[in-house]
Amino acid sequence: MQLRRADVLEGAIAILDEYGLGDLTMRRVATSLHVQPGALYWHFKDKQTLLGAIADSLLADVDSPTEHENWDGQLRELAHRLRDRLLSHRDGAELVAATYASRMVTNRIRERIAAVGIRAGLSRDESELTADTLLYYILGHTVDEQARMQMDSMGALADGTSPLFEKPDPTSRFDFGLALLVDGVRSRLGARARA
């Protein structure tokens, strides 16, 4: 049977979910697919390219249009959609953060968020900065959340508190920070209207 690009991607995601990003190597993917590591390079020129493809796969459709008509509802929906997708795979946030930093991901969530800002009344520059700020918030929050969940599963949290029982819970903390960001955009729009 011929090795397909989709097979490599599926095998890599399975390793990510089982072992985490730190143990996702080309050699491990090749071993799981019963091929030599060189066979993977026919489909992905290097590990960074593979990680970018994994990120794109994890983020598929996360940038699709929202159901809300108002800009603040659209931002909230996009933020939750992205967070949920990141949480659906082990080390998902760390992987996506790394691929965004290296510009290896092609998903258009940043552009979708910026477009919401423009429609709300922000300038293009402000909208792009808003998109970056929101993405950094989502990625950072979710990296921390996933790390705490993994540490909890190993009994390694220093304070002995499980993230599942923290007050407020991770989603409530996420919503609070998201509300601060949305309120900041609203404030900027209000200041512009008063000027």
SSE layout and pairing:
Layout: H1 5-19, H2 26-32, H3 37-40, H4 47-58, H5 71-87, H6 92-101, H7 109-120, H8 124-153, H9 170-194
Helix pairs in contact: 1-2, 4-6, 5-7, 5-8, 5-9, 6-8, 7-8, 8-9
Task: Explain the overall architecture.
- This protein is mainly alpha-helical.
- The protein folds into two domains: 5-45, Homeodomain-like (Arc Repressor Mutant, subunit A), CATH 1.10.10; 63-194, Tetracycline Repressor, domain 2 (Orthogonal Bundle).
- The protein contains nine helices and no strands.
- Helix 5 runs parallel beside helix 8 (124-153) and helix 6 (92-101) runs antiparallel to helix 8 (124-153).
- InterPro entries: DNA-bd_HTH_TetR-type_CS, Homeodomain-like_sf, HTH-type_TetR-like_transc_reg, HTH_TetR, Repressor_TetR_C, Tet_transcr_reg_TetR, Tet_transcr_reg_TetR-rel_C_sf.
Looking at the structure, what is the overall shape? globular
Provide the residue-averaged pLDDT.
Answer: 90
Unreliable spans are: none
Count of domain modules:
2
- Counting helices, strands and paired strands, the structural category is mainly alpha
Q: Roughly what percent helix?
A: 55-70%
What is the radius of gyration?
A: 19 Å
Count of alpha/pi helices: 9
User: Which CATH architecture of the largest domain is right?
Assistant: Orthogonal Bundle
**CATH topology name of the largest domain:** Tetracycline Repressor, domain 2
**Cα-to-Cα separation, first versus last residue:** 67 Å
Sheet having the most strands: none
Strand content: under 5%
Order of helices and strands: HHHHHHHHH
| CATH homologous superfamily (4th level) name of the largest domain | Tetracycline Repressor, domain 2
Keywords: DNA-binding, Repressor, Transcription, Transcription regulation
Pfam family, one: TetR_N
Protein name: TetR/AcrR family transcriptional regulator C-terminal domain-containing protein
InterPro entries: DNA-bd_HTH_TetR-type_CS, Homeodomain-like_sf, HTH-type_TetR-like_transc_reg, HTH_TetR, Repressor_TetR_C, Tet_transcr_reg_TetR, Tet_transcr_reg_TetR-rel_C_sf
